[in-house]
Amino acid sequence: MNQKEQELRLLICDIGRNLFNKDFIAANDGNISARLSETEVLASPTGISKGYLQPHMLVKVNLQGEILEAAEGYRPSTEVKMHLRIYNELPEMNGVVHAHPPYATAFAIKGEPLDKMMMPESVIAMGDIPLAAYGTPSTEEIPDSLIPFLGRKTAVLLESHGALTWGKDVMSAYMNMERLEYTAKLTFITRMIKGERELPQNRIDELVALRSFYGM
Ligand SMILES: [Zn+2]
What we know:
The chain is of the alpha+beta class. The chain is built from 7 helices and 8 strands.
Protein backbone atom coordinates (compact mmCIF):
# COMPACT_ATOMS: atom_id res chain seq x y z
CA MET A 1 0.00 0.00 0.00
CA ASN A 2 1.48 3.37 -0.95
CA GLN A 3 1.72 6.32 1.37
CA LYS A 4 -1.16 8.17 -0.26
CA GLU A 5 -3.50 5.28 0.37
CA GLN A 6 -2.32 4.88 3.96
CA GLU A 7 -2.87 8.57 4.68
CA LEU A 8 -6.27 8.56 3.01
CA ARG A 9 -7.38 5.53 5.02
CA LEU A 10 -6.33 7.24 8.26
CA LEU A 11 -8.08 10.46 7.29
CA ILE A 12 -11.34 8.67 6.49
CA CYS A 13 -11.21 6.96 9.91
CA ASP A 14 -10.54 10.29 11.57
CA ILE A 15 -13.50 11.90 9.82
CA GLY A 16 -15.67 8.94 10.90
CA ARG A 17 -14.75 9.59 14.53
CA ASN A 18 -15.57 13.27 14.16
CA LEU A 19 -18.96 12.57 12.56
CA PHE A 20 -19.72 10.14 15.39
CA ASN A 21 -18.53 12.40 18.22
CA LYS A 22 -20.47 15.34 16.85
CA ASP A 23 -23.68 13.26 16.80
CA PHE A 24 -23.90 13.54 13.03
CA ILE A 25 -24.49 9.78 12.82
CA ALA A 26 -26.07 7.18 15.09
CA ALA A 27 -25.10 3.52 15.36
CA ASN A 28 -23.90 2.26 11.96
CA ASP A 29 -25.32 5.13 9.92
CA GLY A 30 -23.51 7.34 7.43
CA ASN A 31 -20.69 6.72 5.02
CA ILE A 32 -17.49 8.35 3.84
CA SER A 33 -15.51 7.87 0.65
CA ALA A 34 -12.51 9.29 -1.17
CA ARG A 35 -11.23 8.88 -4.69
CA LEU A 36 -7.90 7.09 -4.58
CA SER A 37 -7.08 7.07 -8.29
CA GLU A 38 -8.81 7.49 -11.64
CA THR A 39 -10.44 4.10 -11.23
CA GLU A 40 -10.48 3.43 -7.48
CA VAL A 41 -12.52 4.73 -4.56
CA LEU A 42 -11.97 3.97 -0.86
CA ALA A 43 -15.23 3.69 1.07
CA SER A 44 -16.33 3.00 4.63
CA PRO A 45 -17.92 -0.44 5.06
CA THR A 46 -21.53 -1.17 5.88
CA GLY A 47 -22.67 -2.39 9.30
CA ILE A 48 -19.86 -0.74 11.24
CA SER A 49 -19.94 2.35 13.47
CA LYS A 50 -18.00 5.07 11.69
CA GLY A 51 -16.82 6.19 15.12
CA TYR A 52 -14.77 3.01 15.42
CA LEU A 53 -13.42 2.63 11.90
CA GLN A 54 -9.96 1.20 11.42
CA PRO A 55 -7.92 1.63 8.23
CA HIS A 56 -8.07 -2.05 7.22
CA MET A 57 -11.89 -2.03 7.35
CA LEU A 58 -12.21 0.32 4.35
CA VAL A 59 -13.17 -1.25 1.06
CA LYS A 60 -11.87 -0.39 -2.37
CA VAL A 61 -14.37 -0.24 -5.22
CA ASN A 62 -14.25 0.88 -8.85
CA LEU A 63 -16.48 3.60 -10.28
CA GLN A 64 -19.13 0.98 -11.13
CA GLY A 65 -19.26 -0.12 -7.48
CA GLU A 66 -17.55 -3.47 -7.99
CA ILE A 67 -15.37 -4.53 -5.07
CA LEU A 68 -11.66 -4.42 -5.90
CA GLU A 69 -10.36 -5.09 -2.43
CA ALA A 70 -11.98 -5.75 0.94
CA ALA A 71 -10.85 -7.48 4.10
CA GLU A 72 -12.90 -10.50 5.05
CA GLY A 73 -16.25 -9.56 6.55
CA TYR A 74 -16.33 -6.03 5.14
CA ARG A 75 -18.36 -4.82 2.19
CA PRO A 76 -19.44 -1.41 0.88
CA SER A 77 -22.74 0.17 1.85
CA THR A 78 -25.52 0.10 -0.73
CA GLU A 79 -25.53 3.89 -0.25
CA VAL A 80 -22.14 4.01 -2.01
CA LYS A 81 -24.17 4.50 -5.19
CA MET A 82 -24.73 8.17 -4.42
CA HIS A 83 -20.99 8.61 -3.81
CA LEU A 84 -20.18 6.96 -7.14
CA ARG A 85 -22.63 9.21 -8.95
CA ILE A 86 -20.60 12.20 -7.73
CA TYR A 87 -17.27 10.63 -8.79
CA ASN A 88 -18.60 9.58 -12.19
CA GLU A 89 -20.19 12.93 -12.99
CA LEU A 90 -17.66 15.30 -11.40
CA PRO A 91 -14.02 14.37 -12.09
CA GLU A 92 -12.76 17.27 -9.96
CA MET A 93 -14.53 16.02 -6.83
CA ASN A 94 -12.57 13.55 -4.71
CA GLY A 95 -14.45 13.13 -1.44
CA VAL A 96 -18.05 12.46 -0.36
CA VAL A 97 -19.66 12.36 3.10
CA HIS A 98 -23.15 11.15 3.98
CA ALA A 99 -24.57 11.64 7.47
CA HIS A 100 -27.81 12.21 9.37
CA PRO A 101 -26.97 15.30 11.49
CA PRO A 102 -30.06 16.01 13.59
CA TYR A 103 -30.77 19.65 12.81
CA ALA A 104 -30.19 19.23 9.08
CA THR A 105 -32.18 15.99 9.05
CA ALA A 106 -35.07 17.72 10.83
CA PHE A 107 -35.22 20.26 7.98
CA ALA A 108 -34.86 17.39 5.46
CA ILE A 109 -37.85 15.65 7.06
CA LYS A 110 -39.85 18.85 7.05
CA GLY A 111 -38.89 19.26 3.38
CA GLU A 112 -37.44 22.74 3.84
CA PRO A 113 -34.19 23.73 2.10
CA LEU A 114 -31.69 25.90 4.00
CA ASP A 115 -31.89 28.91 1.77
CA LYS A 116 -31.80 31.87 4.14
CA MET A 117 -28.70 34.00 3.59
CA MET A 118 -28.12 34.97 7.21
CA MET A 119 -24.39 34.98 7.83
CA PRO A 120 -21.31 35.86 5.74
CA GLU A 121 -19.31 32.62 6.03
CA SER A 122 -22.23 30.48 4.91
CA VAL A 123 -22.96 32.74 1.94
CA ILE A 124 -19.32 32.72 0.84
CA ALA A 125 -18.67 29.03 1.38
CA MET A 126 -21.93 27.50 0.30
CA GLY A 127 -24.84 29.71 -0.61
CA ASP A 128 -28.17 27.98 -0.25
CA ILE A 129 -28.43 24.30 0.62
CA PRO A 130 -31.15 22.74 -1.55
CA LEU A 131 -33.37 19.74 -0.90
CA ALA A 132 -32.92 16.66 -3.11
CA ALA A 133 -36.18 14.76 -3.63
CA TYR A 134 -36.84 11.66 -1.55
CA GLY A 135 -35.51 8.35 -2.78
CA THR A 136 -35.45 4.84 -1.35
CA PRO A 137 -31.97 4.11 0.05
CA SER A 138 -29.89 1.68 -2.04
CA THR A 139 -31.90 2.33 -5.25
CA GLU A 140 -30.90 4.69 -8.07
CA GLU A 141 -33.52 7.15 -6.81
CA ILE A 142 -31.16 9.00 -4.49
CA PRO A 143 -28.32 9.29 -7.04
CA ASP A 144 -30.89 10.50 -9.60
CA SER A 145 -32.22 13.09 -7.13
CA LEU A 146 -28.76 14.71 -7.10
CA ILE A 147 -28.73 15.44 -10.84
CA PRO A 148 -30.08 19.02 -10.62
CA PHE A 149 -27.32 20.01 -8.19
CA LEU A 150 -24.22 18.42 -9.71
CA GLY A 151 -21.68 21.03 -10.70
CA ARG A 152 -23.66 23.74 -8.89
CA LYS A 153 -23.61 22.68 -5.24
CA THR A 154 -21.42 20.72 -2.82
CA ALA A 155 -24.04 20.16 -0.12
CA VAL A 156 -27.65 18.99 -0.25
CA LEU A 157 -30.32 17.83 2.15
CA LEU A 158 -31.76 14.43 1.24
CA GLU A 159 -35.52 14.65 1.77
CA SER A 160 -36.75 12.70 4.82
CA HIS A 161 -33.31 11.15 5.22
CA GLY A 162 -30.21 13.26 5.95
CA ALA A 163 -27.50 15.11 4.10
CA LEU A 164 -24.85 14.58 1.46
CA THR A 165 -21.76 16.72 0.88
CA TRP A 166 -18.82 16.49 -1.48
CA GLY A 167 -15.65 18.39 -2.21
CA LYS A 168 -12.32 18.54 -4.00
CA ASP A 169 -10.99 16.26 -1.27
CA VAL A 170 -12.57 14.26 1.55
CA MET A 171 -11.67 16.90 4.17
CA SER A 172 -13.53 19.56 2.17
CA ALA A 173 -16.51 17.21 1.92
CA TYR A 174 -16.41 16.76 5.71
CA MET A 175 -16.13 20.50 6.34
CA ASN A 176 -19.12 21.07 4.07
CA MET A 177 -21.06 18.65 6.29
CA GLU A 178 -20.03 20.61 9.40
CA ARG A 179 -21.11 23.86 7.79
CA LEU A 180 -24.38 22.38 6.58
CA GLU A 181 -25.29 21.20 10.09
CA TYR A 182 -24.14 24.48 11.60
CA THR A 183 -26.38 26.36 9.16
CA ALA A 184 -29.33 24.11 10.07
CA LYS A 185 -28.71 24.58 13.79
CA LEU A 186 -28.41 28.34 13.43
CA THR A 187 -31.59 28.45 11.37
CA PHE A 188 -33.37 26.50 14.11
CA ILE A 189 -32.06 28.68 16.95
CA THR A 190 -32.75 31.99 15.23
CA ARG A 191 -36.27 30.78 14.45
CA MET A 192 -36.78 29.83 18.11
CA ILE A 193 -35.89 33.36 19.21
CA LYS A 194 -37.87 34.81 16.30
CA GLY A 195 -34.62 36.24 15.05
CA GLU A 196 -34.31 34.92 11.50
CA ARG A 197 -32.98 37.83 9.54
CA GLU A 198 -31.42 37.65 6.08
CA LEU A 199 -28.59 39.89 4.98
CA PRO A 200 -29.71 42.65 2.60
CA GLN A 201 -29.31 41.79 -1.09
CA ASN A 202 -26.44 44.25 -1.66
CA ARG A 203 -24.51 42.60 1.19
CA ILE A 204 -25.19 39.15 -0.27
CA ASP A 205 -23.93 40.36 -3.67
CA GLU A 206 -20.69 41.56 -2.05
CA LEU A 207 -20.16 38.16 -0.44
CA VAL A 208 -20.89 36.27 -3.65
CA ALA A 209 -18.24 38.43 -5.34
CA LEU A 210 -15.78 37.40 -2.62
CA ARG A 211 -16.34 33.75 -3.53
CA SER A 212 -14.37 34.10 -6.74
CA PHE A 213 -11.70 36.03 -4.79
CA TYR A 214 -11.29 32.96 -2.57
CA GLY A 215 -11.28 30.74 -5.64
CA MET A 216 -14.52 29.00 -4.71
ZN1 LIG B 1 -28.41 7.49 5.17
